Amino acid sequence: MNEFEIDKKQVRRAFSRAATQYDASAVLQREVCIRMLEKLDYIKLKPARLLDVGSGTGWGTRQLGERYPKADITSLDIALGMLQVSRGTSSWWKKLFTSPRESYLCADVEALPIATDSIEMVWSNLALQWCNDLPATFVELNRILKTEGLLMFSIFGVDTLHELRVAFDGVDGYNHVNRFADMHDIGDMLVAAGFADPVMEMEKLTLTYDDVRAVMQDLKSIGANNATVGRATGMMGKAAWQRITQNYEKLRRDGKLPATFEIIYGHAWKPAPKMLQDGRAIIKTDFKL
Q1: Whether the Cβ atoms of residue 146 and residue 155 lie closer than 8 Å to each other
Q2: How far apart are CA 279 and CA 222, in angstroms?
Q3: Cα separation, 270 vs 285, whole angstroms
Q4: 109 in Cβ contact with 136 (< 8 Å)
Q5: SS3 of 54, please?
Q6: How far apart are CA 225 and CA 26, in angstroms?
Q7: Fold of the CATH domain 8-160+179-205+264-269
Q8: Contacts for 80 with CB less than 8 Å, ≥ 6 apart
Q9: Engineering a disulfide at 268: which of 148, 183, 195, 228 sits with its beta carbon 3.0 to 4.6 angstroms away?
Q10: Side-chain-facing half-sphere of 110: CA atoms under 13 Å
């Protein structure tokens, strides 16, 4: 058994439970989304069909709808509760603004029920870290993209919540923090999946809290609980909690406890094929008759 394997049922339950309170707590997710949207200022593509992977309650989807008012946008999330909140918010939004043509799909990005070569842009803000097989997921996203289509995403990197990892170190034999991918490995995955010239960037954002319970409650309120199969399933004892608190308190700075998130931004294009299905090579030339 892979102790770091993501329990998708747990992910679905956690995010569905958090759906109604998500927007009030998802400060980090919204800030990263804003920074991703700014990067679109340099992208000339005007997609006719756009897929928002891990759309959550739809805040980012609505921003994309304003940017691409003529696009058909599909909101995809593994948690039905998130899509239900998103759809309700969108109905309210339509009363004030011209809404794009939109649809909702409850599905797992690792097994997309979407036709090959049918999407011009795939957008995903802080959702792909919930995949068990990230290389295969990129292959799947490449499959549904049209030639010269764009994949743009953000994902948590290896140093995410390293303070929490330190606090739990030696407390017991369970996993308490999900495992995250390295930026350079993600770039290699994109190339292996068939994407061209991926652009990768990284930054670290730090949130601060008054105490350890506030850190844990904030993660719970956005559904970002530990979802690995190697997690503890019972209640934590008083002695263990005291040790965690003591470990985390050693990291207190300027009166606050930090929680660091490594944010990896990436985008890549699906290039034109170099070979036909029958094996013949495609060679581009500038020769004109």
Answers
A1: no
A2: 48
A3: 20
A4: no
A5: coil
A6: 14
A7: Rossmann fold (3.40.50)
A8: 12, 16, 106
A9: 195
A10: 13
- What is the total residue count of the chain? 289
Digit-by-digit pLDDT tens for the chain (289 residues) are: 455 688 899 899 988 998 998 888 889 999 999 999 999 999 999 999 999 999 999 999 999 999 999 999 999 999 999 999 998 876 555 544 544 578 999 999 999 999 999 999 999 999 999 999 999 999 999 999 999 999 999 999 999 999 988 888 877 666 667 789 999 999 999 999 999 999 999 999 999 999 998 988 888 887 666 555 545 555 567 888 888 899 999 999 999 999 999 999 999 999 998 765 666 655 454 544 4
Report the amino acid identity of residue 30. R
In angstroms, the Cα distances linking 86 to 58, 127, 229 are 5, 16, 29
Domain residue spans of the chain: 8-160+179-205+264-269
